[in-house]
Amino acid sequence: MSDIKLAPPPPGVTGSGFFATTLDKAVGLARANSLWPLPFATSCCGIEFMATMGATYDLARFGAERPSFSPRQSDMLLVMGTIAKKMGPVLKQVYIQMAEPRWVIAVGACASSGGIFDTYSVLQGIDEVIPVDVYVPGCPPRPEAILDGVMRLQDIVRNESVRRRETEEYKALLESYGIHKND
Ligand code: SF4
């Protein structure tokens, strides 16, 4: 007997011999359960992510066990650690190099707000340079909190319209960060 649990199907209309749903829901289901993380770890919060990837917490359960250090082959940027202002342009470059659709989680107090480092050299939150979808509180957040952040992101991904990336609002969001759609 297998312990493997399948993701529940998207809401739809069933009948004998057929199942109908919308493209948005089917694509959302597939995307949410196959997020490929890019760990951008600069300090202590990165260690918590390593634990999250390990056997006890097992991020693989969410279809996200394939860390990528190539921005082109990842769609979930996890920023973990203190980001110095000098590092800001590097982080932005990595974000720009990721293929659409892409999502961002700020893991921990430093990535979310600069944390305890309220100083001239530290970025006071990565949302000063790139848009963020989910913030995970804590210094450091426990692996459970990181998993919760990934699950909140899955909720966003599951419910995102396949057309969102083509909208004027999304274009305006990127442009507010000085990022152009075809960069
Ligand atoms: S939030 Fe705390 S644990 Fe995480 S990188 Fe900053 S100082 Fe380290």
Automatic annotation (TrEMBL):
NDH-1 is composed of 14 different subunits. Subunits NuoB, C, D, E, F, and G constitute the peripheral sector of the complex. Residues 44-152 form the NADH:ubiquinone oxidoreductase-like 20kDa subunit domain. This is NADH-quinone oxidoreductase subunit B. Its EC number is 7.1.1.-. GO terms for molecular function: 4 iron, 4 sulfur cluster binding; iron ion binding; NADH dehydrogenase (quinone) (non-electrogenic) activity; NADH dehydrogenase (ubiquinone) activity; quinone binding. Keywords: 4Fe-4S, Cell membrane, Iron, Iron-sulfur, Membrane, Metal-binding, NAD, Oxidoreductase, Quinone, Translocase, Transport. It is a peripheral membrane protein. Belongs to the complex I 20 kDa subunit family. Its main location: membrane. NDH-1 shuttles electrons from NADH, via FMN and iron-sulfur (Fe-S) centers, to quinones in the respiratory chain. The immediate electron acceptor for the enzyme in this species is believed to be a menaquinone. Couples the redox reaction to proton translocation (for every two electrons transferred, four hydrogen ions are translocated across the cytoplasmic membrane), and thus conserves the redox energy in a proton gradient. GO terms for biological process: aerobic respiration; electron transport coupled proton transport. It is found in: Cell membrane. It catalyses: a quinone + NADH + 5 H(+)(in) = a quinol + NAD(+) + 4 H(+)(out). [4Fe-4S] cluster binds at C44, C45, C110, C139. Binds 1 [4Fe-4S] cluster. One of its GO terms (cellular component) is respiratory chain complex I. HAMAP family: NDH1_NuoB. Gene3D superfamilies: 3.40.50.12280. InterPro entries: NADH_UbQ_OxRdtase-like_20kDa, NADH_UQ_OxRdtase_20Kd_su. Its cofactor is [4Fe-4S] cluster. It comes from the Bacteria. It is an enzyme of class 7 (translocase).
